[in-house]
Amino acid sequence: MPHPNSTAAGSNERVDGFATRAIHFGYDPTLYGGAVAPPVFFTSTYGFESMGEMDAAASLGGKLYAREHNPTTEILEARLANLEGAEAALTVATGMAAAGTLMLGLLSQGDEIIVHQTLYSNTVALTRDGIPRFGIKVIPVDLSDPANLDAALTPKTKLVYFETPVNPTSEILDIAAISARAAKVGAKVVVDSTFASPALQRPLEHGAHIVLHSLTKYINGHGDVLGGVLLGDRGTIAHLHSHGLRYLTGATLSPMTAGLIMRGLKTLPLRMERHSRSALTIAEKLADHRAVAWVRYPYLEGSPGYEIARKQMSGGSGMLSFGLKNGFDGARRVLDRLELASRGVSLGDVETLVMHPASILRARQTVRPEAKPVEGVGDDLIRFSVGLEDEADIWDDLAQALEGA
């Protein structure tokens, strides 16, 4: 049984807080020789003492092989589901494996999916070039105004998919308003909440049906593993497990990776508090800098979506975007001058990371001329993932770099 546990209102048992559950939920050390940290189970298959035992395991959902069943991974899934407020979770090998498992597992030929016009670039590739090959219609919509959803919804709409905050713009979308409109046709709402993590935002509380995270980012937080997770009701997650993971993608999470993610998860609320505090300070200073044309950060007063962010997030997270008055060339000069921050395409690490999407696109176009810019991502946009270094050091590095803008 989980130790400690969180119980329903009205129970005589205590309800533990988020930080306590992030450390303990779903694991009882007394079942594993008193080991404080959950053991990592390295096995590809499971043996049985009799055919009867094997039949029983198979009847319970195929707990025969490690692609579908691993004790370490299941502890992580139970803990993540609890923190997100979901009935169940399914962990997979990467964030893109989560997106692929979701869409291939729930959509069929003739179905429709509505997506926000701005998404993570590889999710754009999946929805623009990938799933349409299977007869699935993808409809991009500007969901910054939820009313735009009404004209796109049809009886064939199965999923409405978006990120909030949006990668890489840090745009905020109204989960409750979008969910209320999607309910008119019974479409499931899927929110990629990677930029926030469950420490700051829990979309299911605002009407969403499924939550996706790249575990590579804040939930692990240390830039040393890849992983993804889908969270939602028990029936949907069971279907994605038995179909999406079992034979559509086979994208199993390594048990070692699961153990490392649980280690990172234990400090998630502390890290998100620090990321959020430092990022707000950096955003405020950027907004006052003479070289900066605009700044977008969820908790920056006056930033688009500020009021919605305050309603559905308990902190602004560590992600912000900004543009320079000198545009593309200025952005490249700034990135070249940075000394503490690392130029890198990931985010959510303890290290500060920065990227210029337009430069990545132009580099890719030299070998893939068909590569297209993501909607809403201009030549000037810089994505800045504020790490856990001293706040003053992060700003000093950025300020000296901006002198070359």
TrEMBL record:
Family that this chain belongs to: Belongs to the trans-sulfuration enzymes family.
GO MF term set: carbon-sulfur lyase activity; pyridoxal phosphate binding
TM regions (residue ranges): none
Any single Gene Ontology cellular-component annotation: cytoplasm
Official protein name in the record: Methionine gamma-lyase
Sequence positions bearing N6-(pyridoxal phosphate)lysine: 217
Cofactor names: pyridoxal 5'-phosphate
Species whose genome carries this gene: Bosea vaviloviae
